[in-house]
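Hey, sorry to bother you again with one of my protein questions. I've been puzzling over a protein and I'd love to understand its fold better. Take your time with it, there's no hurry, and the full record follows here:
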Amino acid sequence: MPTPRLGLVYDFRNPASSGISNPDFYAAIIEQVAWLDGLGLEQVWFTEHHFVDDGYLPSWVPVAGAMAARTKHVRFSTDICLLPFHNPLRLAEDLAVLDNISGGRVEIGIGMGYAPHEFRGFGFPLAQRVSRTEEGLEVLRRCFTGERFSFAGKRYAFEDVVIRPGYVQAGGPPLWVAAMSEAGARRAARYQAHLLPQGPRAEVLDPWRAAVAAEGRDPAQHRVGVIRPTLVTDDPERDWPPVRDSERYRMALYIQFHREGGRGDGLGRYRDEARIPQTWIVGDVEHCARELAGFIREYGLTDVVGWAVPPGLHPEAMNESLEAYVGQVIPRVHALLDTGASRDEESGECSATE
């Protein structure tokens, strides 16, 4: 199995109630990542949404470029980049530039999107999300070969193109695909991608592993990544309430998206006990490390990232927790995984919907 990696994910949501200007907010986060890179942060992921009042990150590529120029070690990826809203050829060129700026530290996690207002905003129906995603994946894979190609599909047509500058990483940036269902799991396997499972293990993770094995490949040689946030604190009663309130605010947007799409409030998906958990882990260094190590072992994960800055909080408000997470929890998780230490029986999970 590939070496596990832990890190952080940023969505850059900055509601007006935070009192922080967007330029200052972006500057503070970029500074935070540069600082954490020096402490040993292993990876940073970005999410993507569009036309959201609080500025939910709509364009992750320039942010990744700014961070790549300020860091030396941390790797960058997405959970997720909404492929239907990107011309895949232009995205491949952006990734080539990022790969060169970062010295080969960029990856890409792809998803289809589901919020109706985003598809209306970009001017095409939600029903096209599958075809745009699958054709986009096909184009990206051809771009990553570094060879000249042509492509003619239902949504895209490209003639005699080759991506320049060439990628630093042989075969291009590692490709991930998000899946919320068995169909999505099979899609990830078909495109030989790493997996971002966003649903129950039996409906996503197990079918993906079976599909990969059926194609003659070893699932254990692929990466599997999940967002699992962590708050490192010696005083949960003091530090958890503001984070919990921010998390409730975060979830309200996803509830809105689900309702717009006629899927109810979507909370059943988050509360489903069969789902790979994404609830917060809250506690001291040892507790958080044991919970994360046990979580990684239980689901066979390789990559786990936590929310860095809950919406409405100043980035600096999370610095104490993030410093402990990067400087103490991550090394302790690696040590526990190396020794196979048993999982702490105390769960300590805190749900945003409590």
In short: Residues 5-350 form a domain with the TIM Barrel fold (CATH 3.20.20.30). Residues 236-260 form the longest helix (25 residues). The first strand starts at residue 5 and ends at 10. The CA atoms of residues 189 and 301 lie 16 Å apart.
